[in-house]
Structures are given as structure tokens and as C-alpha cells.
Design goal:
Blueprint (H helix, E strand, L loop, with lengths): L7 H9 L4 H10 L3 H4 L7 H13 L8 E4 L5 H14 L2 E5 L4 E5 H19 L1
Antiparallel strand pairs: 1-3, 2-3
Helix pairs in contact: 1-4, 2-4, 5-6
């Protein structure tokens, strides 16, 4: 009898160490017992899919430092600043209905300077 115990943690640990889901699947198939080789496919598609999903799980979120801009008094102010950040390529995320936006740390100073400039001009 051959037993293979795969867990979410073991697959993700393998991925952290540079092993891909396809390499794991290839290893399982290459070292399958003779009785398993009689089956087609050798490994159930749901098992293969689950291994791939566990491997991809690590990469579905990306973390980036940023600065949150909120408390805009007017939608127009939000849109002007968001559009500027977007033009610069420093806008990470925005939520127009709630007037939230996040810009990169690198773009924060430039966006802040622009905001002060347009506020000063509108107050004059």
C-alpha cells in the first residue's frame, strides 16, 4: 500500500521553497504505484485542481505600502486628486462612492504637493 498525505500547508511550504504545483503533480505521477498507473487519469482531476489552488493561494494577494486619502468634502475634489494620481501612475486603489483612494508611498509627496497647490488656488 502507498499513502501520500498532502495538506494545504505542505503544498504551500513546497511552493515557498520553489517547487511548483506542476512539479508536485509530475512527481506524484512519476512515482505512482503500478496499480495507480492502470487508471486514467492517474490522479483524480479534483486532487490535481486542489493542489494547483493551494499553490496559487499564496499569490492571490499582493501587499504594497501606500497612503490612504479620505475625508474629501466634495466628490469633485476627490476626482481631481484621483485623476492626478492615476495620471502619475501612483494610484493603487480607489473607491469613488466613499471617496477613498490609496497612492504609493513613492507618489505620496507629489500628490500631497499637488493637493496643496490646487487647494491654495481654489481658496484665492
Amino acid at each position: 500500500m502507498c499513502v501520500l498525505r498532502l495538506t494545504r500547508e505542505s503544498v504551500q511550504r513546497a511552493v515557498v521553497n520553489g517547487i511548483t504545483a506542476d512539479q508536485i503533480l509530475h512527481y506524484i505521477k512519476a512515482n505512482a504505484h503500478a496499480e495507480m498507473l492502470k487508471d486514467d487519469p492517474i490522479l483524480a482531476p479534483t486532487v490535481a485542481d486542489q493542489i494547483r489552488l493551494w499553490a496559487m493561494e499564496r499569490d492571490r494577494l499582493t501587499y504594497r505600502d501606500g497612503v490612504l486619502y479620505n475625508q474629501f468634502l466634495a466628490q469633485k475634489d476627490f476626482e481631481v486628486l484621483r485623476n492626478y494620481a492615476q495620471e502619475l501612475g501612483v494610484l493603487i486603489w480607489d473607491n469613488s462612492p466613499r471617496r477613498y483612494m490609496v497612492v504609493t508611498m513613492e507618489g505620496h509627496d507629489q500628490v500631497k504637493r499637488y493637493w496643496k497647490k490646487i487647494k491654495k488656488e481654489s481658496d484665492s
